[in-house]
Write a structure and sequence with these properties.
Elements (H helix, E strand, L loop, with lengths): L14 H10 L18 E5 L6 H14 L4 E5 L5 H12 L7 H25 L3 E5 L2 H10 L4 H12 L6 E6 L2 H14 L13 H17 L4 E5 L4 H16 L2 H13 L1
Parallel strand pairs: 1-3, 1-4, 2-3, 4-5
Helix pairs in contact: 1-6, 2-9, 3-4, 4-6, 5-6, 5-8
Amino acid sequence: MVTGGRCPYKCETNWQGRIAATWICGVSGWFGDGKDTILRGQFITFEGGEGAGKSTQISRLADYLRRCGVDVVITREPGGSPGAEAVRHVLLSGAAEALGPETEAILFSAARADHIAQTIEPAFHAGKWVLCDRFIDSTRVYQGESGVQPAFLKKLEAVAVGRLSPDLTLIVDIPPRLGFKRIAGRDELSGGAEKDRFERETLEIHSNRRDRYLDIARAEPERCAVVDGSRKPDEVAEAIIEIVETRLGPIAESVTSSRDGVRS
């Protein structure tokens, strides 16, 4: 969740403006001094390796939240806005792979900045909860595993994301072999759909990514929670709901408090 006012130069309105903001306003000034506006939505990101079942669990959590009276926006990365969806096709098709991992990281960050400006921030202003399939940790893990230096990724993150941070990140953890098995089963059901750029990579690479996700969870326990994604979908969904209510508070109370704040 982020707080604060708007940049007087409107640097936050698109990804080009966000890049300019690092020079005009400074990263720390994007959202003002924290006194002008309070964004009441919650931001929950889902992370994990290929075949972890993130999409299924996002849908399950969204259904639960809506039954509790929460306005929910489901989105994804790369993508989530028209501009970012165009970049998604370039990235997942493998068209950008020949340009190198640093260029891929830049493209991911450009898509993310547009996604934040066009989808995530407007949802916050409307008091909605945003559930996002992948966010900053995917770039840290996937491009980091590809050899992009952490300092470079940190600078890109500052440009694209600024002070925005998920309220909660759910890392759906599964052994890579199980992920491969699930992807194979999914492809059979869809008539042999072609795997994307990242699904095609080796078991060793997927194992390295899993380790990186778990490292992030250990380094940021206040933000991240690891969920055993190898269990049955209903069991995973129940575990996620318990984590959300433990970390963010009872959902019904949160909704009531938010609405009372709007009325006052």
